[in-house]
């Protein structure tokens, strides 16, 4: 297929673009490189360096079989400070993309949604049918895009799949996580043995969990990429489907730090710190729907995620 990858200069977008190329697809990347890196775009995928509003129409007018849509603002804290930015960049730019798809008859889209659409869950593991009550503008803007995709599918016949990621980690060779502002746990922990930080902060040790720290469902970015390829084939005209992507099991912050200590062989000092506002105690996905419908299953465990991230971060 001829595919447009928006946000293909970012962490997840670049890994998926590389895997699409390896699977034999033709890939064009559209990214304004505001948070991504031009040198992260895989060789073989031309980069159009522009926003979706500026260029989605022109690019799609060449004729594409589908879009994988990763381009977004994705910092929860920033979204609370600047909600307008998140509505504009996430929902507004996505509308421009969808209207360009309509205008140029692009038949399918796989969208990078998030567990943040659910907010604080009433129960775990979270099912796709559970209530969506986002607790920040980031999650709210992604939920609004999921809703818009359902409408565009119903009204205009586009085939859409929203993949709701839980905590993505790991790397794929030369493609990995390189955020200028790094908030994620695993890269922050690995920054310690690299000498970039003195210790890692544990945000909250009084949660109602076994060891008092937050529990999250980690998924390897390569398993995530595999799900995107399956989702692309599953897009049915006029239909919109939502699938969670996680492993169905969780690790606490302390357990993640311990795995990082094992993989790196370094002591990695940790400092107990107050809770980070807005963090739910436990987030675990049920991925039963995508397993049943598309045959997807995660194959790489937390140790593989940390080992691959460690390899990437040191290179
Ligand atoms: N944490 C620390 N120390 C750090 C960084 C994080 O203790 O230096 C803790 C957090 O408080 C949280 C856990 O580690 O309990 C995981 O935090 P991350 O920032 O790695 O990931 P989040 O669970 O906050 O966020 C992820 C995605 C978001 C998405 C969210 C949905 O990064 O984009 O899942 O649940 F919105």
UniProtKB/TrEMBL annotation:
Gene behind the chain: galE
Family indicated by similarity: Belongs to the NAD(P)-dependent epimerase/dehydratase family.
The protein's annotated pathway: Carbohydrate metabolism; galactose metabolism
Lineage summary: Bacteria, Bacillati, Actinomycetota, Actinomycetes, Streptosporangiales
A family per Pfam: Epimerase
GO MF assignments: UDP-glucose 4-epimerase activity
Subunit note: Homodimer.
Signal peptide, first to last residue: none
Enzyme class: isomerase
Name this polypeptide is given: UDP-glucose 4-epimerase
EC number per UniProt: 5.1.3.2
Keyword list, A-Z: Carbohydrate metabolism, Isomerase, NAD
Domain of life where this protein originates: Bacteria
UniProt domain NAD-dependent epimerase/dehydratase: residue ranges: 4-246
Statement: the UniProt record of this protein carries the keyword Cell membrane: no
InterPro entries: Epimerase_deHydtase, NAD(P)-bd_dom_sf, UDP_G4E
Catalyses which reaction(s): UDP-alpha-D-glucose = UDP-alpha-D-galactose
Tagged with keyword NAD: yes
Organism: Actinoallomurus acaciae
Cofactor list: NAD(+)
